[in-house]
Queue: 2 jobs
Job 1
Amino acid sequence: MTVLITGGAGFIGSHCCVTFLEAGHDIVVLDNLSNANSVSLNRVSAITGRKVAFEAADIRDQARLEAVLDQYGCSAVVHFAGLKAVGESTKDPLAYYDNNVVGTQRLLSAMAKCGVRQMIFSSSATVYGEPKYLPLTEDHPTSAVNPYGRTKLMIEDMLRDIAASDPSWRFGILRYFNPVGAHDSGLIGENPLGIPNNLMPFITQVADGRRAELSVFGKDYETRDGTGIRDYIHVTDLVEGHLRAHEVLASGAAPSNCFAVNLGTGTGYSVLEMVRAFERASNKEIRYSFAPRRDGDVAECFAHTAMAEKLLNWKAERDLDAMCRDTWNWVCKNPRGYETTAA
Ligand code: NAD
Ligand code: UD1
């Protein structure tokens, strides 16, 4: 009973590998390394003391997927593989539809052929679009404001259609809020290539001197200090939510064969609160200046967490200080990510 983890060499996937291995599951990782370095999997082995089976392959290669599912005797899939940069998705939407939508369709076809009918899917709070109310409950209307978000919604719809067509399929759609942090060993973490788009990696690179200052996008939102508020969640909490979802699906205890659930803390922090928390954790000054609002940004976004607590018996436990401390520990131990550090 092996779990196939697509995109398992990436940021969230590598943390998920640790959590699943520590819970006693056998795993195989399939990743095309388009946004990852396989050193992450050596680190997973170092943390867990277990070897990680790895297949360098693309989810769009259906024949290869079928061979891997059969060879390892997989019973379930945790599906992280995909492209995730919002700006890039507006410049090259075809790459997003191909990787995310076509890739997931091929993965599902391979699963159907091999009789593997359980999947956890990485969705995003981006599917809620502009919040009509807060906190966001799972039945909040969905909409997409960019191609990336649209691929997530299309995949969610695909899963709901397949689940409705055949009750033997089991899907857990997990809508992440803002994953940050790193494993507390400092051996694995987020390793963005180029200029980071997201707040936490950017702050980190100001703290370690790679960037001169942070641009704070917008200072006149209707929030407590005028800057955008988000629900940041420690990546270790996030992947523990995946383990719980996997167990609920596998035990047949889910109320339906396709559920969508938020993974967030329920608490929002502003950009300036994040800056101050990171200063505390790193003992460094984070220089910043205000810049215009970023297109497509909402003022405030945070999760309603009751469904995750009820359905998964899961709740995020790590606080903002832990998120900043673990991020800083990872960066200090790996100043250039995985590229220049020994395996
Ligand atoms: P990541 O880029 O670190 O991980 C994705 C992994 O998938 C990478 O290792 C990449 O090499 C691999 N990959 C991409 N396309 C592939 C393909 N066609 N075939 C095989 N492997 C492929 O990103 P992450 O932050 O770990 O995100 C994982 C998932 O969670 C993504 O689906 C992302 O959209 C979703 N998500 C992430 C966030 C976030 O803030 N990080 C928020 C919401 C949802
Ligand atoms: C972004 C994506 C979202 C995706 C998520 C995870 C957009 C519009 N949204 O979410 O679809 O699911 O990343 O990949 O891109 N900020 C700054 N300066 C920076 C970077 C960010 O002030 O240099 C602010 C933003 O305006 C926002 C907050 O920090 O208020 C968080 O931004 P970010 O980390 O990019 O996450 P989201 O915008 O929530």
Job 2
Amino acid sequence: MADHILVERPAGYPGVQIIRFNCPDKKNAITRAMYTAMTSALQAADADPDIGATVFLGTEGCFSAGNDLGDFLAVAMGGGMPREVIEFLYALVRAAKPLVSGVDGLAIGIGTTMHLHCDLTIASARSHFRTPFVDLALVPEAASSLIAPRIMGAQRAFALLAAGEAFSGAEARAAGLVWKVVDPGQVEEETLGLAARLAAKPPEALRLSRDLIRGDREEIIARIDEEARHFSARLQSREARAAFEAFMRR
Ligand code: COA
């Protein structure tokens, strides 16, 4: 999995750490090892006074196709939701410093829901946010069942999380999942510039403001756990296994 997650400190953007999906051949699908690398980078950012903000980026035309379905199929044979996924979600929720994401193109499953934990998301109009949880015989994850209805209302949250409807960049912005829509070629620059501006602000005032805005972390963690219990049971169901095998056989 060498370098499928790149952790970078970009020149010209002081105080910014990038966590970049770098497996375009697999549409940046996220394996357990990639989750672990991202969790470590988030924890390292919180411990490093030189880092003021973390940015999530993908590759051109693809943020991420979500969980690696091969990994999930392996887990479905024996266990529950991979521990590595849960630990990454906890790290996202507990991150003490701002999280900014930049999306160009595909953003599927957790490639969509992780932005609910980001403070600001920039996307291109051609972005395609979609969560086919129910089609895979699964349930929503990442506390999306709690946060999405709050920010976008019940109908849009249902369309996204249960009906599996795709949202364009503009629709995601109208729903409150995205802050700003820019040209595909500007996604990285805008995202990094935004993160650098946040990293330059008084850190304690920013931390307190962020905590107040994001609300009760324990409520979010509790929902992650509740969803994970259902998700784990669903992963081992006959219908989920059939859906995964159908994808792998294509
Ligand atoms: N897990 C594992 N591999 C994946 C993947 C995933 N989530 N998404 C894409 N890939 C792999 C494909 O198997 C393919 O590999 P191959 O070249 O070895 O055959 C490669 O990435 C390219 O994908 P492909 O499907 O050919 O690209 P596409 O442009 O036609 O379609 C998607 C892209 C994202 C629409 C399609 O790949 C897809 O539906 N992926 C599954 C998304 C998903 O359900 N995610 C989990 C949500 S919980």
